[in-house]
């Protein structure tokens, strides 16, 4: 192992061959690199079959000589040849600065990449929705596997814990709608129509929509972070190993909790927003609460309430699926948990708003306007 490196030149089949022997380590090279530099071509090959040990410096010496003399390296064991071949990749030129790309090309490339990512994410979400349906059917066939305790726990996290912030938000939104509406309607002497504006807008649109956005920010992000952390700590893989389906144990309880709680939270939000609007009307417009609620019963059709209650569970499905899907996509490191959590919130809010637009057109088309 510690024999000094040496070389010998031989003629073989009309070509010169350089035979290396000994240890090609940094401690045993001595003057071998200088002796190799004095050799002139043509050389057919460098034989390293007599080398007893080689390190990175020795392999680089062999590779540099082979490149200078334009010859091949032969012989040696598998590890020696792999080390010499690996160093050949270092000859590739490396650009210090990235190649110049025109702004138009860069923008188009970024748009294309964003469209591709959005399409693949949508397909993945649809596949995840299909997996959720399969797991639901499995639970219907085997109701004993249903985890009622997990669902009840999510009721508290999604619903009860959110009552305070959703109530405050809805109350303030009702005040803002009433205040801004009364300012505009006062120009026409129709301040009483503020009641119409508050009632129809909150029950039909803003009550459920703002609740969905709030739930997406609270619960959707929590779902993504929880499942992402479980993926990193390999808890999800451990569940699969012991025969527990992650879809049944983790995804379905969260989805069911959000779907059941969203109509209740949406109705609660609408009521609180109406109370906020009535408070502003009583203070600013001198409309008594009794008059406000009597007028509200006259101008708000029951279909507005049904519209909000129909949209709420659909929004709940979108929020739960987006959060769980993004959480289950975490693979690499803790930083990806934050990225997937952000993506879950953005994706859920975007899809909720898009679906709300479709619902608005659909209910107008069927005559619920």
Describe this structure in words.
33% of the residues are buried. Helix 6 (163-186) packs parallel to helix 9 (246-284), helix 7 (193-232) runs parallel beside helix 11 (302-328) and helix 11 (302-328) packs antiparallel against helix 12. The protein is elongated. The protein has helices at 32-38, 56-69, 78-87, 103-141, 148-158, 163-186, 193-232, 235-241, 246-284, 289-299, 302-328, 334-365; strands spanning 6-12, 15-24, 45-54, 72-74. It is of the alpha/beta class. It starts with 5 loop residues before the first strand and ends with a helix. 71% of the residues lie in helices and 8% in strands. Strands 1-2-3-4 form a four-stranded mixed sheet. The protein has twelve helices and four strands; from the N terminus they run E-E-H-E-H-E-H-H-H-H-H-H-H-H-H-H. Strand 1 (6-12) and strand 2 (15-24) form a beta hairpin. The mean pLDDT is 87. It folds into two domains: 6-91, STAS domain (Transcription Regulator spoIIAA), CATH 3.30.750.24; 123-365, no CATH class.
